Amino acid sequence: MKRTFAAIAVAAAALTAAGAQAQNYPTRAITMIVPFAAGGPTDVIARIVGENMSKTLGQQIIIENVAGAGGTTGITRGAQAQADGYTIMMGHMGTHAAAPALYPKLRYDPAKDFSPIGMAAGTAILIAARKDYPAKDLKEFIARLKTEQDKANEAHAGVGSVSFTTCTMFNVMIGIKPTRVPYTGTGPVVNDMIGGKVDYVCDQIVNLVTQIQGGNIRAYAIATPERSSALPDVPTTKEAGLPDYQVSAWNAVFAPKSTPPAIVAKLNDALVKALDDPATKKRLLDLGAVLPQGNERTSAWLGDYVVQEVARWTPILKAGGVVAPE
Ligand code: ASP
What we know:
Blueprint lengths: L1 H23 L5 E5 L6 H17 L3 E5 L6 H8 L7 E6 L1 H9 L11 E17 L7 H11 L4 E4 L5 H13 L4 E4 L3 H9 L5 E5 H9 L3 E6 L14 H4 L7 E9 L4 H16 L1 H9 L12 H21 L7
Parallel strand pairs: 1-2, 1-3, 5-6
Antiparallel strand pairs: 3-9, 4-7, 4-8, 4-9
Bound molecules: aspartic acid.
The site of aspartic acid (ASP) has 14 residues, from helix 2, helix 6 and helix 7.
């Protein structure tokens, strides 16, 4: 009897301590892992929302760039972190939907190993090239790529990244096998593209808007049904003659699985407040991001969406026959 009572007392004490921990959270800085190099779309979105989340939470959100293996290195580290709310991560369609099909030994399950916090930004995909690429429109671009084949250099952010995934789709669709050049993120890709070192990329609009508006990079098409108000002169793939190439990406915040629900709720609340903050919202919209609305902002919705996205991308990528090196 005494032992039972003692066990109950210990359990109650633990629950009280956990409750107090969650209630007082956060009491110190929070690390947000960005699984790509600084300056790329995931990094930019993380820093924009993180800056405002810090104000709501009253503690600094510190971005830690952990690049490698198409973002799976950083997300693996995030999945294995303490589930105390002090390590979160910005994942995306690559790390949390494409990766399982491309990494047979992936060390996390996107649908099971995380506490989803919330969707941050949807990002249309652009087919973009160095500004002096000798093709005046998408049709000429595709025709030239078909003759160049492996003489054309396509840049991406590693097997499983959004740029890798969406250009795999593009390359297979038009029947080309370019030389594929891996980077630690598409931030560095932009620098090399402006320098003329690589020919093209399939990348998220938030990473390219400024450079396209400045005439430093050329966009042949945007892979969404409608044009983006951020790039009104860039035709859709449908207008440009490749209607079947329809693809967008997304970036979302995750915590390790078993993060206390009260902490998840505080993080979700801070993310939603960031998306509603006028200045933060404007920065994201000016970069062409699409922001989640209503139910799309909940943690539960994100959890369901990840399951759907893994199911959607797995057959597409397996058909492409690409598997990451062991
Ligand atoms: N989102 C990655 C980055 O921020 C790029 C990618 O996934 O293609 O660099």
